[in-house]
Specification:
Blueprint (H helix, E strand, L loop, with lengths): L22 H13 L9 H15 L3 H21 L10 H4 L1 H4 L11 H5 L2
Length: about 120
């Protein structure tokens, strides 16, 4: 069927055949997919804590190691103070200087009582 201008009313033909079975379209689709990033699955709190504990243990920051480092620091500080004390106490004789303070106002020997009554 033709019109007055010698033009056909309906189109003839079909899809263009690809030699590799649509290879160009497959390549284009793969390139599109490379540009898109996959959405990551939301992490649960348990997964997060487990991963964090694993990393802490691998680095050496676990609670056990933290306490051990604190004890080592304290021991080191004590040793430094013992070797080089920052102050020295005055040498004192306890009996001469402190005992009179503690015994102030106290009689050392009791007077009276039944022994004095009996005449001993």
């Amino acid at each position: 069927m033709n019109t007055k201008d010698n033009r056909q009313l309906n189109a003839k033909g079909g899809r263009i055949g690809y030699a590799a079975g649509g290879g160009i379209m497959k390549i284009i689709n793969k390139l599109k997919k490379l540009g898109k990033t996959k959405k990551k699955k939301l992490e649960t709190v348990k997964d997060f804590v487990d991963r964090r504990e694993f990393l802490k243990k691998s680095v050496g920051n676990s609670e056990k190691n933290k306490n051990k480092r604190m004890m080592d620091d304290i021991k080191r500080a004590v040793e430094d103070v013992r070797k080089n004390p920052e102050f020295k106490f005055k040498e004192i004789d306890i009996e001469k200087e402190i005992e009179p303070i503690l015994n102030k106002g106290r009689k050392l020997h009791a007077t009276g009582g039944i022994a004095s009554m009996l005449g001993e």
